[in-house]
Amino acid sequence: MIDIFGNAVLDYQKGNYTEDIITFSSLDEEDKIPLPYLFRDYKEMPELEQKALDLYKGSVLDIGCGAGSHSLYLQKKNLDVTALDHSKGAIETCTLRGINKVAHSDIYDFKGPRFDTLLLLMNGIGIVGRLNNMSRFLDHLKTLLNPGGQILLDSSDIIYMFDEDEDGGRWVPDTGSYYGEVEFSMKYKNQESEPFFWLYLDYKTLETASEANGFNCQFVRKGDHYDYLAKLWLK
């Protein structure tokens, strides 16, 4: 499998930045992921991410760490943080940036120690892909949490992307799937990824799935554009 994301962030880290990642989705026109944004510091992060990083406790696992900006910030505060990503290039980038603890692994294959905080930022819950995978995902996260541990995640309700009807409601096509399941592909330097699903969860759906799988769910803060920060912990 082509490591589009990893190749791009590694290029940026090594000073070979010439273009951004292009994304194509089942809901929208093509878009871009600006590589400099992935290397932002705390002051440049959205308030939701800043709030999540302020709520850390104990040891931290940064799931889907990407270029490692969240892990790097926490490490500089002398926290015990591990940066995890399935992208080899992303993990190499994290190492080059000076992150001490890294894990190159798919989340389901990661059987490491338990942590006090699991971070899933930049819509990190998206790695679940499809709504019917939530139970498996949350069950696995239980094996990575210390007693009293927490999960901090942000996501978006993408209902705004659908047409509004005369009554103010939204017209969502009846595809038989949850409307937050979006199919993506990425392109970088003439290489294109295989299509993959990314999950955007409205808060009510997250709360329902969490409760059904033995978690408490708390709405922490609303973002600027249909996004939110939530906290989960085991009942």
UniProtKB/TrEMBL annotation:
It is an enzyme of class 2 (transferase). It holds the Pfam family Methyltransf_23. Coiled coil: none annotated. GO terms for molecular function: methyltransferase activity. Keywords: Methyltransferase, Transferase. Gene3D superfamilies: Vaccinia Virus protein VP39. GO terms for biological process: methylation. Its EC number is 2.1.1.-. This is Methyltransferase. It comes from Zobellia galactanivorans (strain DSM 12802 / CCUG 47099 / CIP 106680 / NCIMB 13871 / Dsij).
